[in-house]
Design brief:
The complex is a heteropentamer, with one copy of chain A (about 230 residues), one copy of chain B (about 230 residues), two copies of chain C (about 250 residues) and one copy of chain D (about 260 residues). Chain B is an all-alpha fold and about 230 residues long. Chain B has one domain (about 5-230): MetI-like (MetI-like fold, Orthogonal Bundle), CATH 1.10.3720.10. Helix content of chain B is about 75%, strand content about 0%. Chain B starts with a helix and ends in an 11-residue tail after the last helix. Chain C has about 250 residues and is α/β, with parallel strands linked by helices. Chain C contains nine helices and eleven strands. Chain C has a six-stranded mixed β-sheet with strand order 6-7-8-3-9-10, with helices on both faces. Chain D is an alpha/beta fold. Helix content of chain D is about 30%, strand content about 20%. In chain D, strands 1, 4, 5, 6, 9, 10 and 11 form a seven-stranded mixed β-sheet that branches. In chain D, strands 2-3 form a two-stranded antiparallel ribbon. The chains are: A mainly alpha (about 230), B mainly alpha (about 230), C alpha/beta (about 250), D alpha/beta (about 260). The interface between A and B is large, with 45 and 39 residues. Bound molecules: adenosine-5'-triphosphate (2 copies) and magnesium ion (2 copies). One magnesium ion binds near residues 40, 41 and 165 of chain E. Chain A: It is a multi-pass membrane protein.
């Protein structure tokens, strides 16, 4: 029932999309962290108006399925860009719009909500005395954040960022809806030709598992490295 | 993107009617998943021989594979495995399989939240209980667990939100839940009003998640009185 | 009443306690002094079995416990007859002051809630905290926390209370209030084993001073002997360090 | 929501012999008109045929349940289901893995849908160099196009793929708007209705392929296959199938000659 | 050199500082004493602008800052001329000892790495920590951490250093080493504003003692006056508390 040579064939086929998947997920992770960081700062410093807007956005992004968000972005985004392009008077052909961009933008925004929670937790782990010490030495707020708070917070945040990275990698399987081929999509394509679903899904599971194990080792090593110093 | 509010209101009752099913699934899998994760965490912290490495394996697998795959594995694999030891679960309903998947998934996922929270509890607290003559079980339930909770709550909150969205795996095995109702609606007029359906779905999930957030925040407030905080501002 | 016999303890092949023998009689107030890193804390923790000694015996009048053949039940029995007051208080953070005192009475001694409540009230009164019953540890000052932790120990009616540097984590102004409470307990006839750096307090309160150095008891005797007519060179040397140019003065009520 | 658990009532129990064997049957959950639920009841072309077949077989009793299409075939592989139906095409790998009845239960008319600018497209070879809407990786079209490409290396078609998720209506709109040049799909997915309903400027080609569709059965049950075959044969000759086709597809798919 | 004029500060409608005026001359060592909760810490924090006063003015010889019309730039300028040593040290956890001292020189004073390194080495030498350059705070004892934090303040060459109970978080045995360092700095001519409970230390080191109570300065003057010939009843009363039956003795090297 289970043909191992087909399994290995699928496995090596799936490996070819791994770099692309990893890269895409990394880009989304980084963008998500940047957006999430900004949302956290808005929330922490209670910047008027923006603070309320951010709260509603965060709740919506967290509360609705990614699939739905992706779908709305797929139709909404070209129209939105078209609208702004019209305002700014430059040409934009929505028919040439690459769905990968839709995926990157909608995923980054969606996951920024979760990153924001992680970053908030990490900031909470930095004691306020550290910030006062920097202020008393004449650091500006930005200098304090960049040189003192972030290096300390990142240690706490790192394991959670790895979790997010794994979640993003897995969630990219939804992006096949708009033709972006990731690991699971590749598995489906492999089985579409040979009708061997069991083998291809098993191969996909193996690839995911392998990736997770490797990433965990890499992250843990890095975390121990920086934790030693604190 | 034109929105047809009249249509959205028309399809709402269909969603409301499957809401109890979804809520039951959330409740059962949340509760039993949590209990399983406590067990798993205990095994890992006590470093129980043989079981502890098995749990690590289970967690790394669950963390790394999409829940869709886990669903298929449980739905098709579990009956095969259990039939080997003479248990027949082929007459289980799809809902039970979905709950089983979610319980297994959350058992691993929550354990990764509980373990660091446990380690964050001050060693002195455990020693104080020891010195007063508490048994291990008394120490765990009366002292340690109430202190793990506030630390773990934000993570548990995130997990609950994920769980709510993960209930859509029900539809993979043909149980009609919110996502299933949506798919039926979309299929029945060949997708010409998919946007309206998805917007309705978004609103419903948002409402459930909002309530879940409130539920978690309630516990956060309750535990806040003995939970000291750091942070960017004060 | 309590006798330690030949207690040995090593950490990572490094011997910290090198055979300690110590007798404590009912009503005694025994104070251990000595340089940092000598093993004072470790000894106290062994008495409560928070640390498992490698060798040795602990004996109550009616009950013996040998560390080499110890059972879970024995440990619980030992712990129910001793009580520890920690340097860092270690109050249960999720319980109010009175709940902290009640908890072990209910859980360990199986008292009724009402009985536990009354006993706790009495003990909190004794340490002067009757007005802070419902405060959480985070809402109490260091001195107040330490007093709750003393009340928690007292409420168990242990045969002996162990104090490990009960004032060293306190602001100077709070030291006085805790020392006063301990003084009063000592006067009421409770048996006490205490580690402290407050020499003059030790001198005032103790019936016996034990000077430890490098894992051994160097000298023991009544305060007057140790502080004024010490027989050992090492003891004299140690006590001479405590004559500095900066004398710290603490409040007391 | 009685279809939710997937189990539908064993049909017309009275006509069954007492030792009737239960056959686990899986159909897709929401694929109108093949199989979908209406007012909470499972229906559709495949479902109704299965019920008719079930009624004809005394020694078998069908338990029809709905699952997602991915899950269907895995279930057949692992032995959870005995028979699945989703307008499957026949191909060598399937023939080797499963039992396929001799009788088809329907036919799939592959048509090309184009916008004004591309209305000249009338065959597969015309699609070379055109922007095709992404093809469902789980469907038979993907295989037809790949097969075409291997046979016509000089006039290859560029085959984009995607998951199910964007509906036929969405895809047709994308063709009408000019985002893509053409859409190729079996005609039985409601296209005619959508085009009319949304008033889209879409040209529909004549069938470029007419492909018979089959049930797939697990390898172990040769007897069931023969029983199903004879039932299908009767249903064809008495016109039942043509009638169902008209009801669900709007035309009698059996009138076309099978191409291959 | 530094003058505080009419500083007011309230928390939640509760006035903590009720108009403080204080003059400090170059080279002065001014010690603030007073009961707990009086606002000593709050006053020190206002001088460094870690707390924003509601009213009042702070004046250097060439630079004035009024709290009602303050700009971001002024705050930074103020902070660069003052330096704070915290009770809890607050060393940057992610930096080694020498990095802690270098950091602000590089970031705030824009010094070159080399110049910062040399200056830091000099200051760490001064506090006797030349052998701990590359240790992280977690690897240092409390007394060592407090000395690094003093070096960090000194390296900024502030016109005045503010100390808030620099020894009260230390184990009694470590107090001496920090007091010695402060003593030595005071002798080298640095201007110091200090809050402490170490009365005998205050008496030895200060050029001026300020006694605060309930948000006001009750009395100020040279140590001999305050400790021995105090004019105010409240001051005498407070100082009498510091004659207890338990005298705490600390080590010093
Ligand atoms: N869990 C442990 N693992 C390894 N070494 C330990 C452990 N606990 C204590 N030690 C070592 O044992 C020695 C004695 O420690 P202990 O805390 O008993 O000293 P102490 O006399 O209480 O000192 P202090 O007056 O500073 O509290 C120290 O050198 C310490 O480093
Ligand atoms: N951020 C704050 N919010 C509210 N009240 C505060 C705040 N900071 C200080 N206080 C209050 O101001 C009063 C003075 O506090 P402060 O810390 O200045 O006293 P202190 O003289 O330094 O006392 P101690 O000797 O105990 O350190 C106290 O009653 C305190 O509760
Ligand atoms: Mg000790
Ligand atoms: Mg203060």
């Amino acid at each position: 029932m289970f043909e191992s040579n087909i399994f290995f064939q699928d496995f090596s086929g799936i490996l070819t999309v791994v770099p692309y998947t990893l890269g895409l997920a990394l880009l989304i992770l980084i963008l998500g962290i940047l957006i999430g960081g900004i949302l956290t700062l808005i929330d922490q410093y209670k910047i008027p108006f923006l603070f309320q807007v951010a709260a509603v956005c965060l709740s919506f992004l967290r509360g609705t399925p990614l699939l739905v968000q992706l779908y709305l972005a797929y139709y909404g985004m070209p129209k939105l860009i078209l609208f702004f392009a019209g305002l700014l008077n430059f040409k934009f052909d929505p028919n040439q719009f690459d769905p990968v961009i839709t995926v990157i933008v909608s995923y980054s925004i969606c996951f920024s909500a979760f990153q924001s929670e992680i970053i908030r937790g990490a900031f909470m782990s930095v004691s306020y005395g550290q910030i006062e010490a920097a202020h008393s030495l004449g650091f500006s707020s930005v200098q304090t954040l960049r040189r003192i708070v972030i290096p300390q917070a990142i240690i706490e945040a790192l394991p959670n960022f790895l979790n997010s990275y794994l979640t993003i990698i897995k969630s990219l399987s939804l992006a096949f809806m708009v033709s972006v081929v990731d690991i699971l999509a590749k598995a489906k394509l492999e089985s579409a030709l040979n009708f061997r679903y069991l083998e291809s899904f098993a191969a996909a599971a193996a690839v995911y598992w392998l990736l997770c194990a490797m990433l965990t080792v890499v992250f843990r090593r890095y975390e121990q490295n920086i934790r030693k110093k604190a | 993107m034109k929105m047809d509010f009249g249509y959205m209101i028309k399809i709402l009752p269909g969603f409301i009617s499957v809401l109890p099913l979804t809520l039951v699934v959330i409740l059962c899998s949340g509760l039993f998943g949590f209990l399983l994760s406590v067990l798993v965490t205990g095994i890992r912290i006590k470093r129980v021989k043989i079981f502890s490495p098995l749990m690590e394996l289970y967690i790394s697998f669950t963390r790394s594979t999409p829940i869709l795959l886990q669903m298929l594995l449980v739905y098709y694999g579990l009956p095969v495995v259990l039939s080997l030891i003479g248990i027949n679960i082929n007459n289980w309903s799809g809902t039970l399989f979905a709950i089983a998947t979610l319980v297994l998934h959350n058992g691993a996922f929550l354990s990764e939240i509980l373990r660091p929270a446990y380690l964050a509890v001050d060693e002195g607290q455990k020693e104080a209980a020891d010195s007063l003559g508490f048994t291990s079980f008394q120490k765990l339930t009366r002292i340690v667990f109430p202190q793990v909770l506030p630390v773990a709550l934000p993570g548990l909150g995130n997990a609950l939100i994920y769980l709510i969205q993960d209930t859509s795996i029900l539809f993979i095995i043909g149980v009609v839940d919110i996502m299933g109702t949506a798919n039926n609606l979309i299929s029945n007029d060949f997708g010409s009003r998919q946007i309206d359906v998805f917007l309705t779905v978004a609103l419903i999930y948002w409402a459930i998640s909002y309530m879940a957030d409130k539920f978690i925040k309630y516990f956060e407030r309750k535990t806040a009185r003995y939970h000291l905080e750091n942070g960017l501002t004060r | 009443m309590l006798a330690l016999k030949n207690i040995h303890k090593s950490f990572n092949d490094h011997e910290i306690l090198k055979g300690i023998d110590l007798k404590i009689n009912k009503g005694d107030v025994v104070t251990i002094i000595g340089p940092s890193g000598t093993g004072k804390t470790t000894l106290l923790r062994c008495v409560n079995y928070l640390e498992k000694p490698d060798e040795g015996e602990i004996a109550f009048s009616d009950f013996q416990l040998n560390y080499q053949s110890v059972k879970r039940k024995d440990i619980l029995r030992l712990r129910r007859r001793t009580a520890m007051v920690f340097q860092q208080y270690n109050l249960f953070k999720n319980k109010t002051a009175i709940e902290n005192v009640m908890e072990a009475q209910i859980v360990v001694q199986k008292k009724s809630k009402k009985a536990a409540y009354e006993k706790s009230l009495e003990e909190l009164n004794r340490v002067g905290l009757a007005d802070k019953l419902d405060a959480y540890p985070s809402q109490l000052s260091g001195g107040q926390q330490q007093r709750v932790s003393i009340a928690r120990a007292l409420a168990m009616e242990p045969e002996i209370i162990l104090f490990d540097e009960p004032t060293s984590a306190l602001d100077p102004e709070l030291v006085g209030e805790v020392l006063n409470v301990i003084d009063q307990i000592a006067r009421s006839g409770v048996t006490i084993l205490l580690v402290t750096h407050e020499m003059s307090f030790a001198q005032n309160i103790s019936t016996k001073i034990v000077f430890m150095d490098q894992g051994k008891i160097v000298e023991e005797g009544p305060p007057s002997q140790i502080f004024n007519h010490s027989r050992e060179k090492r003891t004299k040397e140690f006590l001479s360090h405590f004559n500095s140019n900066y004398t710290k003065i603490t409040t007391a009520k | 929501t009685n279809n939710s658990s997937g189990a539908s009532q064993p049909s017309s129990a009275s006509s069954k012999s007492s030792s009737a064997k239960t056959v686990q049957v899986a159909v897709p959950t929401a694929e109108k008109p093949l199989s979908y639920s209406e007012n909470g009841k499972l229906t559709g072309y495949e479902v109704e045929i299965l019920r008719k077949v079930d009624a004809k077989l005394k020694d078998y009793s069908f338990n029809i349940q709905s699952v997602s299409s991915n899950a269907q075939q895995i279930g057949l592989d692992t032995g959870k289901y005995d028979l699945i139906a989703e307008g499957f095409f026949k191909n060598p790998v399937r023939a080797q893995k499963y039992l396929i009845p001799n009788e088809n239960d329907g036919a799939s008319l592959i048509k090309i849908y184009t916008n004004d600018a591309n209305k000249s497209i009338a065959s597969l070879s015309d699609l070379s160099g055109k922007r095709l809407t992404p093809v469902d990786a789980n469907g038979g079209i993907f295989n037809i196009l790949t097969a075409y490409n291997t046979q016509n290396p000089s006039k290859k078609i560029d085959i984009p793929t995607s998951d199910t998720g964007l509906s036929t209506a969405d895809r047709l709109k994308e063709v009408a708007s000019g985002k893509y040049d053409a859409l190729i799909l079996p005609s039985n997915l409601g296209e005619a209705q959508i085009i009319k309903q949304l008033n889209l400027k879409i040209h529909t080609s004549a069938p470029v392929k007419v492909i018979p569709t089959y049930f797939l059965l697990s390898k172990k049950d040769e007897q069931l296959k023969e029983a199903v075959d004879s039932a299908l044969k009767q249903l064809k000759s008495d016109g039942t199938l043509s009638e169902l086709s008209k009801k669900y597809y709007g035309e009698d798919v059996f009138q076309y000659k099978i191409t291959n």
